[in-house]
Amino acid sequence: MSMKCGDSAFTGSYDVGSFPKSFGYGAEEGDMEENCAPPDKPRILLMGLRRSGKSSIQKVVFHKMSPNETLFLESTNKIYKDDISSSSFVNFQIWDFPGQVDFFDPTFDSEMIFKGTGALIFVIDAQDDYVEALGRLHLTVSRAYKVNPDINFEVFIHKVDGLSDDHKIETQRDIHQRANDDLADANLEKVHLSFYLTSIYDHSIFEAFSKVVQKLIPQLPTLENLLNIFISHSGIEKAFLFDVVSKIYIATDSSPVDMQSYEICCDMIDVVIDVSCIYGLVEDGSGCAYDKESLAIIKLNNTTVLYLKEVTKFLALVCILREESFERKGLIEYNFHCFRKAIHEVFEVGNSVHSAHWRSADSPSGSLSGLNYASLNGNNI
Ligand SMILES: Nc1nc2c(ncn2[C@@H]2O[C@H](COP(=O)(O)OP(=O)(O)OP(=O)(O)O)[C@@H](O)[C@H]2O)c(=O)[nH]1
């Protein structure tokens, strides 16, 4: 494995204003109540009954808490607003609600809470009787939809680590059916709920969060398009664009995602950051565990190669490829250079336009200036 870690801060050509200013691996907790998002910064709400696992999800995904430590988390008794944008590409606020939130309390300002919300994650404890949770889900969704019909409603059927495979499927089917029946009875058929089976004890919670976040990234079609072009011209089998600090993948190419590939790429990020923290920082502990020189290549014993490289201050590309394809390392590096440049352009334009619509999201072969991939047969496209 080769790995580099310099201590210089990233100074790419993009407008750093779009990205938080400093990267601190293992971010500190955000401030609580006072930490308000600017009006245009979307938020993700975590709601659900008491002890359903909301705080654990937030701590495990965004604060590197180990799942076992969540056993000692105290009950949340006021809204916890966590701004993770100083360490992550995910430029949102996560609001963790107490389980006993009362929508009929006059101090509960649903207009303010739901107006700027991008996604509402409702967590249901699958190891518990979920009848009460379904009632709560219905109340929450109908309230939120009335204020803001553009919210994405995401239901995490959580703690499924305690369930057998058959039981998981059956629970998901039953919750899906009942939740949609309740909506239909209230003439709310047009509300769409997405369901995920999750647990903090495996990668399912990261995968589910990845999908929730991807829906909120306006540049997603462009990112997927760029990844498709990159892998097809470089002989790569699968590529993920990762938010390093949370291990959420913000985009991947259009081939199906299998859980094992995602897991091994997550593990690679952990290895790189851990080794870099131990051996990459300067003596006094200053510097960054992840910076523009971060690069790692791991050859597995099954002729597979894992390749990780820095894309931006917060994003890393992690690829899976065959050993034979890695013989053309120069080509991969050249194409990576084009890919990286294009990604920077995507976010530069995204910032200056400040709009949800990326001008070349439909461009089939990446018409961004300077994007000139070398292909496997030696031709440029
Ligand atoms: N088995 C299992 N337990 C989990 C999982 N996620 C959370 N838990 C446990 O569930 C318990 C409650 O978790 P919390 O995160 O405090 O729940 P909460 O929804 O924030 O609770 P309130 O703050 O009271 O609303 C803790 O003991 C966690 O360890 C999971 O995926 N699997």
Describe the protein in words.
This is Ras-related GTP-binding protein. Keywords: Cytoplasm, GTP-binding, Hydrolase, Lysosome, Membrane, Nucleotide-binding, Nucleus. It catalyses: GTP + H2O = GDP + phosphate + H(+). Its main location: cytoplasm. The protein is an alpha/beta fold. It contains 9 helices and 12 strands. The protein folds into 2 domains: 43-101 and 108-216, Rossmann fold (3-Layer(aba) Sandwich); 219-353, Beta-Lactamase (2-Layer Sandwich). Guanosine-5'-triphosphate is lined by residues 48, 50-56, 70-71, 73, 75-76, 98-99, 158-159, 161-162, 199-201.
Task: Give the low-pLDDT segments.
Answer: 1-39, 354-371, 376-381
Radius of gyration: 21 Å
Within CATH, the superfamily of the largest domain carries the name P-loop containing nucleotide triphosphate hydrolases
* Helical segment count: 9
CATH architecture of the largest domain: 3-Layer(aba) Sandwich
Tally of structural domains: 2
* Chain oligomer state: single chain
Which structural category do the helix and sheet elements fall into? alpha/beta
End-to-end Cα distance, whole Å, is 32 Å
- Named CATH topology of the largest domain: Rossmann fold
Relative helix content: 25-40%
The total strand number stands at 12
Element-level helix/strand string: EEHEEHEHEHEHHEEHEEEHH
Pfam family, one: Gtr1_RagA
Catalytic activity: GTP + H2O = GDP + phosphate + H(+)
InterPro entries: Gtr1_RagA, P-loop_NTPase, RagC/D
Keywords: Cytoplasm, GTP-binding, Hydrolase, Lysosome, Membrane, Nucleotide-binding, Nucleus
